[in-house]
Automatic annotation (TrEMBL), chain A:
This is Dynein intermediate chain 2, ciliary. Residues 568-585 have a biased composition (Acidic residues). It comes from the Eukaryota. Pfam families: WD40 (PF00400). Residues 479-513, 544-567 have a biased composition (Basic and acidic residues).
TrEMBL record, chain B:
This is Dynein light chain roadblock-type 2. InterPro entries: Roadblock/LAMTOR2_dom. It comes from Blattamonas nauphoetae. Belongs to the GAMAD family. Residues 16-110 form the Roadblock/LAMTOR2 domain.
Length: 793, 116
């Protein structure tokens, strides 16, 4: 049907607001009214009469807010169209297409409106297959038998019976509704993403395919893409106005979590389930104690409470500078900080035998406990402390004999090497052990127990070997040689030094007896051990220097050398000196009858790691090379009693100190046979140590409880500081921290004192001189010493 | 170690137990409280009978947990890679140190004035 158009009508002009009596528009051609064109309301209220041409007096009543239009506007023509579209039907219907699994707009919109429909029940009478139609069924039975055979096949369209739809009511289970509320925070989303990343990483590793495929594989699991919250009872604090304080761990099924974590979440989600989980772990108390997070938190808290209590000490450690140093001139003092007293039973009443700061962590150090008295051998212990907690060590290990030496591995921070008094050398990772090792548990330590070649006497020194040995031969090592007095040669020396550094890489290791070249493969095998942690060098009273290689469950030793006593004396026959042990001086031709000197201390050169100093109980210091076939390069004898400590200068390559039981400390230049400087004290010196930040500052501790600090740059004869730390207690070991101006001093009662150096004692630390300047200072000291000698002092 | 908990005769006292007892004996420490996140279960170690922790343990547990949760949310909103390690609240009378963990919150109350 063509759309009917209505002619435009003219709106009646209204002159006044009030009713008008005249009807200007002729009503003869009145168009049929449509929905959009309503006849004006008349006073009679019946616009319809106008259609039939009633010419009544009409009163047009206009409402007050009727739109007023001008003449032209009134005459404006509007097009109105009728069409067959159903305007009530929406044109933008979108339906979910399950085939394509997306929303698609439905373009096929019917504009047909059905006003009435009735489904009939009439069935085609003639069809034989109509069921339930009695009449047709009877006819069929009356007729010939309906046998489907080849000759009697009739294809007939059948009308299936229409099943009447019926409305049936079904009761379902009550659908439980839940309110779920959650506050999303940015970190929550971050956590979910992180977990998803982890999950994908795991998946990727599992399938081993490309990430895209792995992702697909992941989705094909049972986990839905968007896991939906499962219906669980709501946690108690879900609806609290927490404003972000809600913990996500309690809510199950957050989007982005994987299936496994969903399951985990399930078990920890609800309030009641938290109890169930705890209940599942035996008793209420156990769950608190098995959580490693609590241990961490407790350790931190412990340190914090201690910090509160001992606030003064912490502040002093960091900030205290003794102001009286300005008035004291050159001398300084030490400020006692913490005192570490072992509380564990195994370490009580033992002597502190060794102290070692950790090379990497400024507040970490290890202390070894044992006894120096050899007729009273007992158990030993190692405690690893941190300055932050002086009441309780972080790690504690016990051993079945006294600990005499310890050393940290520089490259692998958790590894510690320990030397015991029964000759055992151990190295282990401190994290792997349980806190106390009973005697029976030593089996899994790296001990050399049954290994051939173990030390037969106390192990006085252990040192980790990590660096490759230097490839420069000692003859060419200019730095180790004493420079001549004249200036030009010193310049030459510097030039040669630079050349040396450049040429170090290029230089081939020449076949000299003193370098490692000859035994290179063996050496490398030993130094880069199976686990790559390093080898341990140990010196012992049985005169042997042994290198230990770590294997799976034990340390394998390999002798480097033996420290021999003075062979000249042996050959001369029976000169009665301090040589010990089994000697066979009568047979002078047998080489192995030479006496061995028990070693009591060792120090490896800081830059030339093939050089080491070993002090012996025969009061002789041997400079040895650790390379494959070690040998003694030089001997220094000036002490008269066993040497307790030797130490290379950390900056100046030629200088070292030695301290002995003969109440004296000597300063040596390794190129010269005689000591350069001598310092005498009132009692035997337990230990001497250089400050790591200076070439001229060193400290020592003595058996009468005193600590001395020297700075040779300032005063070459007297200590800058002499402090009585303890009365009637022998001080055994001293160690400088590499990071702070702090020293640790151990005494024979097992206590370890922390002392802070006052400003006067650490001028180099404050000035931050370069290494060259420090070396210069030391050179001046050496010159002074030589001048003193020449002057006959 | 000599001491063993009577409740668990077969297990040696765990590291956590020894640390707890040691800490509760520190000078000034009024007590330690470990609470689960929803404050349903708490464990208190305090040597003093009159310790405020014992008297008001539920308040301490729930309030401290919620404020440490808020603080955690603040830190992580600023930088999701960060995390709250612990917080100290210094009051006129005490100092409360709270360390939140994944499942538990550890609360320690110390009186810093009695400390040397």
């Amino acid at each position: 049907m063509p759309p009917k158009t209505t002619k435009t009508t003219k709106a009646t002009t209204q002159k006044t607001k009030t009713t008008t009596l005249t009807d200007k528009s002729p009503k003869k051609n009145q168009p049929l009214p449509s929905a959009s064109n309503r006849p004006p309301m008349t006073s009679t209220g019946l616009g319809g009469f106008g259609r039939f041409g009633f010419d009544q007096q009409k009163q047009v009543i206009k409402p007050a807010n009727q739109l007023k239009l001008s003449e032209t506007e009134l005459n404006e023509e509007f097009q109105l169209m009728l069409n067959t579209t159903d305007s009530f039907m929406p044109s933008n219907i979108v339906r979910f297409n399950f085939k394509d699994k997306q929303f698609k707009s439905d373009t096929n919109i019917t504009h047909t409106r059905t006003h009435f429909s009735l489904d009939g029940k009439a069935v085609y009478q003639g069809s034989g297959s109509s069921q339930g139609n009695q009449a047709s069924g009877q006819q069929a039975s009356e007729g010939k038998a309906k046998l489907a055979n080849a000759f009697n096949i009739s294809t007939v369209g059948t009308q299936t019976q229409r099943l009447e739809p019926k409305t049936m009511l079904v009761d379902t289970d009550k659908i439980v509704f839940e309110d779920f509320s959650y506050t999303v925070t940015q970190w929550d989303i971050f956590d979910s993403y992180m977990q998803d990343q982890e999950r994908q990483k795991v998946e990727k590793e599992k399938t081993g395919k490309k990430p895209g495929i792995a992702k697909k594989a992941a989705n094909q699991d049972d986990t839905p893409l968007i896991p939906l919250p499962k219906a669980t009872p709501m946690p108690a604090n879900a609806l609290e106005p927490s404003g972000g304080g809600v913990i996500p761990g309690e809510f199950p099924g957050l989007p982005g979590m994987s299936g496994e974590s969903l399951l985990n979440q399930q078990s920890t989600s609800t309030t009641s389930n938290v109890m169930a989980l705890a209940g599942a772990q035996q008793s209420a108390n156990v769950s608190f104690e098995t959580d490693p997070g609590i241990l961490r938190a407790l350790q931190v808290l412990e340190r914090m409470t201690l910090q509160n209590t001992f606030e003064g000490i912490s502040e002093d450690y960091k900030f205290w500078e003794d102001p009286s140093d300005a008035q004291k001139g050159d001398s300084g003092g030490v400020l006692p900080l913490w005192t570490f007293v072992p509380s564990k039973r195994e370490a009580k009443k033992k002597t502190t035998t060794c102290i070692a700061w950790h090379p990497r962590y400024p507040d970490f150090f290890a202390v070894g406990y044992g006894t120096f008295e050899f007729n009273k051998q007992s158990t030993g212990a190692v405690a690893v402390y941190t300055l932050k907690n002086h009441l309780n060590p972080e790690y504690f290990f016990t051993f079945d004999s006294s600990v005499l030496s310890i050393a940290w591995n520089r490259k692998h921070p958790p590894y510690l090497a320990v030397g015991l008094s029964n000759g055992v050398v151990l190295s282990f990772d401190i994290r792997d052990q349980t806190n106390t090792l009973s005697v029976s548990k030593l089996d899994f330590n790296r001990r050399k127990g049954d290994v051939k070649g173990k030390h037969t006497d106390c192990v006085w020194g252990v040192v980790w070997e990590e660096e490759m040995l230097s490839s420069i031969s000692d003859d060419d090592d200019e730095l180790m040689k004493r420079p001549d007095r004249s200036e030009p040669k010193e310049h030459d020396e510097k030039k040669q030094e630079e050349k040396r550094h450049d040429g170090e890489e290029r230089e081939k290791p020449e076949a000299r007896p003193r370098t490692q070249a000859g035994g290179a493969p063996e050496e490398e095998g030993a130094s880069s051990s199976i686990e790559g942690v390093g080898t341990v060098l140990s010196v012992s009273s049985d005169g042997r220097v042994t290198r230990w290689r770590r294997e799976k469950d034990r340390m394998v030793p390999r002798d480097v050398m033996e420290i021999k006593g003075d062979t000249d004396d042996a050959l001369d026959g029976g000169e009665d000196d301090e040589e010990q042990g089994e000697t066979d001086t009568t047979d002078q031709t047998i080489i192995f009858s030479q006496t061995v000197s028990g070693c009591s201390c060792v120090s490896v050169h800081p830059t030339r790691s093939h050089l080491a100093l070993i002090g012996t109980e025969e009061a002789i210091i041997h400079k040895v090379t650790k390379s494959y076939n070690g040998e003694t390069l030089q001997k220094y004898s000036a002490h008269k009693m066993p040497v307790y400590s030797v130490a290379w200068n950390p900056m100046h390559p030629r200088v070292f100190l030695s301290a002995g039981a003969d109440w004296s400390v000597f300063l040596w230049d390794h190129t010269l046979d005689q000591p350069q400087l001598e310092f005498a004290f009132g009692s035997s010196i337990g230990d001497v140590a250089w400050a790591p930040f200076s070439a001229t500052i060193f400290a020592m501790c003595s058996a009468d409880g005193k600590v001395y600090v020297f700075d040779l740059n300032i005063n070459r004869q007297e200590p800058l500081c002499e402090v009585q730390l303890e009365k009637n207690t022998r001080l055994t070991k001293i160690a400088f921290s590499a990071f702070d101006p702090v020293i640790l001093v151990g005494d024979e009662k097992g206590k370890v004192h922390t002392l802070k150096l006052s400003p006067n004692l650490r001028k180099s630390y404050a000035e931050k001189n370069s290494v060259e300047e420090e070396i210069e200072r030391m050179e001046k000291v050496l010159d002074y010493a030589i001048r003193c000698k020449e002057a006959g002092m | 170690m000599a001491s063993a908990k009577p409740a668990e005769p077969q297990q040696p006292p765990s590291e956590i137990e020894t640390t707890l007892t040691r800490m509760s004996q520190h000078p000034g420490v009024l007590g330690l409280l470990i609470a689960t996140k929803d404050c349903k279960r708490t464990k208190i170690v305090a040597i003093d009978e009159e310790s405020p922790l014992l008297l008001q343990k539920d308040e301490y547990a729930s309030l401290c947990t919620s404020i440490s949760g808020q603080a955690l949310s603040v830190i992580r909103d600023i930088d999701p890679a960060d995390k709250l390690l612990f917080m100290r609240i210094r009051t006129k009378k005490h100092e409360i140190i709270i360390a939140p963990e994944d499942d538990f919150t550890v609360i320690c109350v110390q009186d810093p004035n009695t400390a040397s």
